[in-house]
Amino acid sequence: MKNASSHVSRTSDSGYYGGPVGFRLALANPDRVKGLIVQNATIHAEGWNPDVVKQFQPFWKERNATSEEPIRGFLKPETTKWQYMHGVTRPERLSPDAWTHDQARLDRPGNDRVQLQYLWNYQDNVAQYPAWQSYLKTRQPPTLVVWGKSDPFFTMAGVDALKALAPKAEVHLYDAGHFALESHGEEIAAAIKGFLAKSNY
Question: Which residues participate in catalysis according to the annotation?
């Protein structure tokens, strides 16, 4: 991840998933940010699962049919379901509608090319990590971190790195995976409501 280029050839500005969208907005309008809520979104290279890094680094270094093949694996039905199921301690709270709906959209004709481009572009997010880290360290916005501890993509090292930048951050950890809201929605909603109340929103 540390070798990600800051000059990425892109056909569009797509590839900004979840947390990267929020941090780009924060940097673009820092005076309008009253606080941050971070849910399983790392802004540190060390916050990535090394096994995932091994799949992405060849793809980002040289994109071709061979390096694309492992990335295409992320678009398969079994992987889509796995992303929801991995690390979940409350499987009864999960709805199959989640991965079924996701897969139906992934399987649209030609969408594989779109998704591969998104994932190729994601390296630009990694290149922006130093700027986002600097923002958090300098601005110190009120920050709530809600995190599924068994995320297969982003590890607890990402939480520790966030806490190092924002020592006053409020952190709640859950026995959940990447999509922690799927199994711990009520608990996370309560944490958010409490955070907003204390921040006088």
Answer: 178
Two tokens, residue 198: 């204390």
27 φ, ψ (degrees, to nearest 5): -70, -35
| Burial group, residue 95, by CB count within 10 angstroms (0-12, 13-18, 19+) | exposed
> Structure pTM?
0.88
CA distance 149 to 184: 12
d(CA 156, CA 69): 28
Nearest partner of 24 among 132, 141, 140, 143, judged by Cα = 132
Tell me if residue 95 falls in helix, strand or coil.
coil
- Of 187, 180, 200, the closest CA to residue 83 belongs to 180
H or E element, residue 171: strand 170-174
User: DSSP 3-state assignment of 122?
Assistant: coil
Instruction: Give every strand in the sheet of 143-148, ordered side by side.
Output: 36-39, 143-148, 170-174
pLDDT in tens, 154-177: 999 999 999 999 999 999 999 999
Rounded CA separation 81/63 (Å): 26
CA distance 16 to 121: 8
